[in-house]
User: Which sequence fits this backbone?
């Protein structure tokens, strides 16, 4: 087979797509020590306070969660340039096909996106990305194994109502102050 | 060489396929945008709906067969003009059929569709509301396998701008 220019172009395409793009996890690890960032990593063991109010179903869901983490880049007066660079980086990571979009929305300078990785009914990662031109950006992730997205959302709702006791989390937040 | 051409075509296809009309509005500050994918629709049916009665089941069927919904709305006069122009050229290049038209107090709402598998089903539902003053201009594009008789319920559930007009859709 002769190496025609077209063949080389195709090869370039193929290798590009096989190239291991940095994952969110790598981005998190890389930047969690950076003072510009705000990072929070919560193993699911901390999510279990007194959860007697939860249904058996919700408890099972909770067990599929491994950890919750958050990385944010708050925008300040002097870091506009870094903000743009980092936002570009994270947007690029999230544009990978493995991050499947559930929905996107935008209002004024605020944008948000909800995504997941894994199979439709057994997801590995649930991701919420939000950015605002005036306040910065943030990515929250719930990682686990074979999480059922519908159960996960139901659990989030119960957390809003206060059924899910995140006592461990509150202690952590207090100790950081 | 033929193989190669095919290969090239396949490599490029995803890039061509993702280019969508009205994409640019998603990035605009003056525009409120919502994009909901089929995966989200499927998820929603699992969370909020119980298929106990046949009517809900029909609604579930509708939602499960939606591919994508895009809503762009804006009150900026500059964007409004652009939307009107883009919609006009979009309708021209995509052979769509008019479903209905409502004119009410200075605003015009037009619905278009692409025929689907039967009279009741369409493969695309497109709406443009040309608003004035406090009323935003809205582009709404829904693709999938859409049962027109169920669409009005969507408007209630998703809080779509100009949803009132969507509720008026009925199959005659």
Assistant:
């Amino acid at each position: 087979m002769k190496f025609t220019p077209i063949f080389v172009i195709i090869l370039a395409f193929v290798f590009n797509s096989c190239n291991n793009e940095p994952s969110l996890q790598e981005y998190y690890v890389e930047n969690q020590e950076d003072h510009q960032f705000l990072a929070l990593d919560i193993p699911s063991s901390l999510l279990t306070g007194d959860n007697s109010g939860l249904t058996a179903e919700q408890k099972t869901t909770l067990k599929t969660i491994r950890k919750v983490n958050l990385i944010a880049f708050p925008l300040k007066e002097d870091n506009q340039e870094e903000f743009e660079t980092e936002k570009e980086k994270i947007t690029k990571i999230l544009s990978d096909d493995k991050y499947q979009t559930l929905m996107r929305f935008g209002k004024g300078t605020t944008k948000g996106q909800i995504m997941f990785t894994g199979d439709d009914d057994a997801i590995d990662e649930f991701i919420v990305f939000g950015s605002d031109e005036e306040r910065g950006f943030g990515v929250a992730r719930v990682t686990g194994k074979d999480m059922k997205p519908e159960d996960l959302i139901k659990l989030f709702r119960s957390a809003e109502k206060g059924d899910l006791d995140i006592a461990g989390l509150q202690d952590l937040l207090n100790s950081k102050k | 060489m033929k193989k190669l051409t095919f290969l090239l075509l396949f490599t490029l296809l995803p890039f061509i396929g993702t280019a969508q009309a009205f994409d640019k509005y998603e990035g605009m500050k003056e525009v409120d945008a919502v994009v909901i994918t089929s995966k989200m629709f499927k998820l929603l049916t699992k969370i909020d709906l119980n298929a106990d009665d046949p009517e809900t089941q029909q609604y579930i069927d509708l939602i499960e067969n939606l591919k994508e919904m895009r809503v762009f709305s804006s009150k900026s006069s500059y964007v409004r003009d652009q939307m009107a122009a883009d919609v006009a050229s979009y309708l021209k290049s995509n052979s769509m059929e008019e479903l209905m038209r409502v004119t009410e107090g200075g605003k015009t709402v037009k619905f278009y569709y692409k025929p689907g598998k039967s009279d009741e089903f369409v493969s695309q539902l497109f709406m443009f509301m040309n608003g004035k003053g406090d009323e935003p201009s809205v582009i709404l594009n829904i693709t999938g396998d859409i049962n027109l008789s169920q669409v009005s319920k969507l408007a209630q559930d998703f809080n779509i701008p100009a949803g009132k007009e969507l509720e008026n859709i009925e199959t005659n």
